[in-house]
């Protein structure tokens, strides 16, 4: 399925996935060169733009976002956001580090240690074509393999890209894909965005190994608002991986990222992400891609962290024969509300989409799947396939499914299937009678449940995901 | 003291008593057959031995090699060397037979078995039990025929090498050829590991392939008759009704 997937050795994998909850939850001592006071003001928005030395149009975009954010109510659907206090969040915190180092040795020791612990530099050496690492509001490390840079592949910190490629950025940044006024958290994002990734892959260039960005939020009561803009030009190919985590504090943090992807004619793009924000993070993230004729956009998401998640990656199939494939796994544990799903718009004939979602709820966690598929009149021969499966590990957990389809064209092929299952006591007893503890038996049933999705992931990813879910299943 | 000692065992589901005072001894190296009509409590005994939470032991004791089995959790019983071959094993989607057996084996080993070593042992036992090579890469019991399920149970048994195996209706849903392979395979394993076997069966088909040292007949939760291998032949000829009649008389 993924042309970029390369086999890796076992030691690579174990280095990458030597996961321990402490690894994610550990907080570094805070050292910032600039840290805003909590709360959002026009003054702060102007300060961010000034510190980044941005062109006027970007400041205008930020102010427009702020203007609308302040006048827009919270969504009237989905998980409760009542405990999210916008006045307590620190929207801009710059680490005491050089921006965009290309050498890990230049990254301050404490920050480097954090990324070492997360296995990023090692993965970079072994199976990635480039890495970006963001710490709070700034990108502290960014590097791409020389040969790819020579072919014209651009992989930059979003802030740097704005300075170096102003026209390309201006044309694509929150314009057609995700406009500033899309929804409340996008308005907020526009006002305070900082860092993130910019990628441009020129026509017919195939990036053989994945590019990865890792976002780490360290500041207490912090907010992270990275902006990712990816343009895969005609006939080009890219696999981009994103990982995220934050330490465990008692105060809430907020993540409102924005991912915009342009898949041009005949291009292929795979976007993979493992989100593992700490359990007190509100992850209100927006991801959308526009796919031109014959293009392919694949979303692979694993959602295990955060207290509240609202995330529905969206594909706009604009050209004929454009395809989208959405694969997702969400795990909702104690005090977690995982509200995830997928959206697809079929705007042209012969477009096709596949949505496959698996969710696991345990210890009273809530997982909700929202599928939204629209086929406009004239999108003849469109194919839609939606399959979502939910597994409840115990009787106190909750699983919801809200499929929504609006099909305006009659010549279409639509399939929808949803299942909700519980772990069967006989199944557990059978496994336990072979020497597995109840916990091991449960883990095995859960691993089996997600296997059909995991087996399609590149190896290094599949192992990481399995380990993460294993961690989630372990009793605390 | 026998390896497995069951004394005056009473067990119930809810308020309904199913076993009403069973006493039974089994030693390693011995083959004991427990026969009886449907509903006599044979499978209940098997589940009680394995620690199924659905059943409550209301009276009596079970010791396994001197340890109080009733205080042990199902996985502890398994690790102590008890194995139950299920009449109707559960399906587990997404987990291959081979992955499952390796996990079960590792659960009882001080250090995980090397993958190469496991593959070697697995292949050996698959040959012994004439198991199709594709079977171990399929998801556990999912879409398996009756015979395939029973063979998978025996494959687990052969790799986990228990001290005592309980074979619950291994001959039901199994064709003659498969039953012969299973019978011969289990006999070989028992001989090489000195495993004790408790065979639970309605018919005595399986007893043609595994020779019992002792036969007990269970009717309505009680052992009504005990004897040697000849008792199985008697049942084959006259059925259980004759036993019931004797009991009444």
Report on this model:
- The complex is a heterodimer of chains A (476) and B (249).
- In chain A, the strands form three sheets. In chain A, strands 5, 6, 8, 9, 11, 12, 14, 15, 17, 18, 20, 22 and 24 form a 13-stranded mixed sheet that branches.
- The model of chain A is unreliable at 1-20 (pLDDT under 50).
- Chain A contains 13 helices and 25 strands.
- Chain A is of the alpha/beta class.
- Chain A has one domain (29-425).
- In chain A, helix 3 (42-51) runs antiparallel to helix 4 and helix 4 (56-71) runs antiparallel to helix 10.
- Chain A has helices spanning 10-16, 21-25, 42-51, 56-71, 109-117, 120-127, 146-150, 158-164, 166-172, 184-192, 425-432, 438-454, 459-473, and strands spanning 32-35, 93-95, 130-135, 138-144, 154-157, 196-201, 211-216, 223-224, 227-232, 237-245, 253-255, 258-263, 268-276, 281-284, 286-291, 296-303, 308-311, 314-317, 323-332, 337-346, 352-361, 366-375, 382-392, 398-407, 412-422.
- Chain B is an alpha/beta fold.
- Chain B has a single domain (4-248), classed as Rossmann fold.
- Helices cover 36% and strands 26% of the residues of chain B.
- Chain B has helices spanning 42-50, 74-79, 97-106, 115-128, 146-160, 176-193, 230-238, 241-248, and strands at 4-13, 16-26, 31-35, 56-64, 67-68, 82-85, 164-168, 196-201, 214-219, 222-227.
- In chain B, strands 6-7-8-3-9-10 form a six-stranded mixed sheet, sandwiched between helices.
- In chain B, helix 3 packs parallel to helix 5 and helix 5 (146-160) runs parallel beside helix 6.
- The two termini of chain B are 33 Å apart.
- The chains are: A alpha/beta (476), B alpha/beta (249).
- Chain A binds chain B through residues 424-427, 429-438, 440-441, 444-445, 447-452, and chain B through 50-53, 73-75, 77-79, 83-84, 86, 89-95, 100, 103-104, 107-108, 139-140, 156, 160.
- Chain B: InterPro entries: ABC_transporter-like_ATP-bd, FeS-cluster_ATPase_SufC, P-loop_NTPase.
- Chain B: It comes from Candidatus Iainarchaeum sp.
């Amino acid at each position: 399925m993924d042309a970029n997937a390369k086999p890796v050795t076992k030691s690579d994998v174990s280095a990458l996935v030597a996961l321990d909850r402490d690894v994610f939850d550990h907080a570094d001592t805070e050292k910032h060169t600039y840290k805003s006071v909590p709360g959002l003001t026009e003054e702060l928005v102007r300060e961010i733009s000034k510190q980044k030395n941005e062109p006027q149009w970007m400041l205008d975009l930020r102010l427009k976002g702020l203007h609308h954010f302040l006048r827009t109510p919270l969504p009237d659907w989905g998980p409760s956001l009542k405990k999210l206090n916008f006045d307590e969040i620190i929207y801009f915190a710059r680490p005491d580090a050089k921006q965009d180092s290309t050498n890990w040795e230049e990254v301050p020791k404490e920050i480097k240690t954090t990324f070492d612990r997360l296995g990023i530099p090692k993965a970079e050496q072994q199976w990635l074509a480039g890495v970006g690492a963001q710490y709070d509001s700034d990108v502290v490390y960014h590097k791409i393999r020389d040969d790819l840079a020579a072919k014209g592949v651009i992989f930059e910190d979003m802030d740097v890209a704005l300075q170096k490629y102003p026209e390309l950025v201006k044309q694509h940044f929150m314009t057609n894909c995700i406009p500033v006024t899309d929804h409340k958290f996008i308005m907020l994002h526009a006002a305070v965005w900082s860092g993130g990734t910019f990628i441009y892959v020129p026509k017919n260039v195939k990036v053989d190994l994945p590019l990865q960005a890792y976002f780490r939020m360290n500041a207490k009561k912090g907010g992270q608002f990275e902006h990712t803009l990816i343009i895969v030009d005609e006939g080009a190919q890219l696999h981009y991986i994103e990982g995220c985590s934050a330490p465990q504090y008692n105060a809430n943090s907020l993540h409102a990222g924005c991912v915009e992807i342009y898949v041009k004619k005949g291009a292929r793009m795979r976007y993979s992400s493992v989100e593992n924000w700490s359990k007190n993070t509100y992850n209100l993230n927006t991801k959308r891609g526009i796919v031109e004729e014959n293009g392919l956009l694949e979303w692979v998401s694993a959602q295990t962290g955060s207290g509240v998640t609202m995330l529905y990656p969206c594909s706009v199939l604009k050209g004929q024969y454009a395809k989208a494939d959405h694969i997702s796994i969400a795990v909702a544990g104690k005090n977690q509300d995982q509200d995830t799903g997928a959206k697809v718009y079929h705007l042209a004939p012969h477009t096709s989409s596949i949505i496959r979602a698996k969710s696991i709820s345990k210890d009273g966690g809530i997982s909700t799947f929202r599928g939204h598929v629209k086929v406009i009149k004239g999108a003849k021969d469109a194919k839609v396939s939606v399959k979502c499966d939910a597994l409840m590990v115990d009787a106190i957990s909750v699983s919801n499914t809200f499929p929504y389809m609006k099909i305006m064209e009659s010549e279409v092929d639509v399939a929808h299937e949803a299942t909700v299952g519980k772990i069967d006591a006989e199944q557990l007893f059978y496994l336990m009678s072979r020497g597995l503890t109840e916990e091991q038996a449960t883990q095995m049933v859960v691993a089996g449940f997600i296997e059909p999705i995991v087996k399609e992931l590149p190896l290094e990813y599949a192992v990481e995901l399995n380990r993460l879910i294993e961690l989630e299943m372990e009793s605390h | 003291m026998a390896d497995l000692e069951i004394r005056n065992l009473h067990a119930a589901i809810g308020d309904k008593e199913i076993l009403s005072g069973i006493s039974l001894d089994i030693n390693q190296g011995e083959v004991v057959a427990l026969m009886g009509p449907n509903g006599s409590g044979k499978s209940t005994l098997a589940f009680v031995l394995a620690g199924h939470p659905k059943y409550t032991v209301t009276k009596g004791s079970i010791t396994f090699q001197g340890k109080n089995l009733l205080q042990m959790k199902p996985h502890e019983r398994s690790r102590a060397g008890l194995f139950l071959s299920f009449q109707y094993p559960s399906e587990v989607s997404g987990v291959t037979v081979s992955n499952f057996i390796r996990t079960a084996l590792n659960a009882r080993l001080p250090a995980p078995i090397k993958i190469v070593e496991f593959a070697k042992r697995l292949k050996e036992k698959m040959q012994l039990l004439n198991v199709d090579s594709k079977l171990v890469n399929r998801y556990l019991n999912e879409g398996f025929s009756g015979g395939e399920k029973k063979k998978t149970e025996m494959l687990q048994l052969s790799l986990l090498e228990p001290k005592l195996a309980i074979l619950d209706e291994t001959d039901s849903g199994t064709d003659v050829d498969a039953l012969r392979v299973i019978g011969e395979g289990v006999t070989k394993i028992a001989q090489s590991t000195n495993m004790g076997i408790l065979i639970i069966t309605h018919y005595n088909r399986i007893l043609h392939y595994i020779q019992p040292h002792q036969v007990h007949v269970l009717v309505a939760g009680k052992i009504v008759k005990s004897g040697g291998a000849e008792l199985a032949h008697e049942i084959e000829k006259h059925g259980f009704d004759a036993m019931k009649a004797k009991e009444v008389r």
